[in-house]
Fold this sequence. Notes:
- By secondary structure, the protein is an alpha/beta fold.
- The protein has helices spanning 34-42, 64-69, 87-92, 98-112, 129-141, 159-176, 187-193, 211-216; strands spanning 2-5, 8-11, 23-27, 47-49, 53-54, 57-58, 72-75, 147-151, 179-184, 196-201, 204-210.
- The protein has one domain (2-81, 129-136, 144-221): Rossmann fold, CATH 3.40.50.
- A 6-stranded mixed sheet has the order 7-8-9-3-10-11, with helices on both faces. Strands 2-1-4 form a 3-stranded antiparallel sheet, with helices on one face.
Amino acid sequence: MAAGCGGTGVVHDVALAVGRGEVVALLGLNGAGKTTTILAAAGALPRSAGQVRVAGTALPSARPHAAARRGLACVPQERSLFSQLSVAENLSLAVGGGRQNLAVETARAVERFPALGDLLGRRAGLLSGGEQRMVAMARALARHPEVLLVDEMSLGLGPRVVDDLGRVLRSAVLEEGTGVLLVEQHLDVALAFAGRAYVMDRGRIVSEGSSAEIARNPGLLGL
């Protein structure tokens, strides 16, 4: 896959795979092309070459709604919540099937993140960064995606919130078989959750291996 912004190429010849029930990390320094890769895969940026496939089905370029319908969900770095809507209304945007299904998914979101139980009526824009991240994660998982893309899960968050998010990711992987591509700048966070990792540099995949191999060779990241 190749993609960029404003006609400028940012990532080139990116080839990676995420299996069902697997967490894979995408690592690299700032500016390596990780976020561009995530956004292009999710359809938020156009691809200039290559394909993205979910369960064997090719996804159209630059059509995020089509990607979502075919089983790909994304928790972007900026969280992308509707700040004027309540937490419950934000969750409802991801849920189809009527009121009963909405009630089920809302209850599941609160089960996953108990802190949201008292926040369902609050506007999303008034939440803390950690609370917004929980809502964004709960909303993405309410779609029951085949593949979940998570961009910088730990960015600006305390260890307790990161642990909560990681616990929910593990649950989705184990219980629903969701495949997760986790973009992370912090090596310790990424390797705590991922079984495999790819390393990006200057828009290209430069190495890959198990988390254990990456942990033994942190120089692969250029750190």
